[in-house]
Amino acid sequence: MPDQTTTRPGDAALGSGAGRVLLLVYGVFALSASARALVQISTHFAEAPLAYLLSALAGLVYIAATIGLARGGPRGRMIALVSCTVELVGVLLIGTLSVIDAGDFPDATVWSNFGSGYGYVPLVLPFIGLWWIHRHQPTAS
User: Which helix (H) or strand (E) segment is 3 a member of?
Assistant: First the structure.
């Protein structure tokens, strides 16, 4: 007799189904933030070193989140969870600081002004990522 159990959301891999869209968005941000930071650091680092290093950090966080979501399993889930949490704290902290004292950020980072240069996607993305990870927790058998 075939197994008639139903698949619950937590049983699916993080990067499957609609998670592929989330994985794609994280991949695009990993590429764009990293490329932006690489160009900024290699061409005019002295103009705004803090902003450019923060863009590099954002790129690394997006790379880690992408890897975690793609990998899945307990280790991938932990990588994605930590990455999305760091991303959320980063965008809220850098977003707030860049609004309060714009002089510290003579050039924008991915997370400046809560990601306004990227259509506020950096502000919304960690909330969606954390929700997705929570929704797809493994279920006890």
Answer: none
What's the pTM? 0.86
C-alpha span between 123 and 30 (Å, rounded): 15
Cα–chain-centroid distance for residue 37?
15
Determine the pLDDT at residue 18: 81
- Domain assignment present for 6: no
Q: Please state, in angstroms and rounded to a whole number, the distance separating the CA atoms of residues 11 and 29.
A: 27
By three-state DSSP, how is residue 63 classified?
helix
| Residue 139 included in any domain | no
How confident is the prediction for the chain on average, in pLDDT? 88
**Cα distance between residue 125 and residue 63, in whole Å:** 14
Number of domains in the chain: 1
Instruction: Please state the φ and ψ torsions of residue 117, each to the nearest 5 degrees.
Output: -70, -15
Residues in Cβ contact with 2 at an 8 Å cutoff, skipping those fewer than 6 apart? none
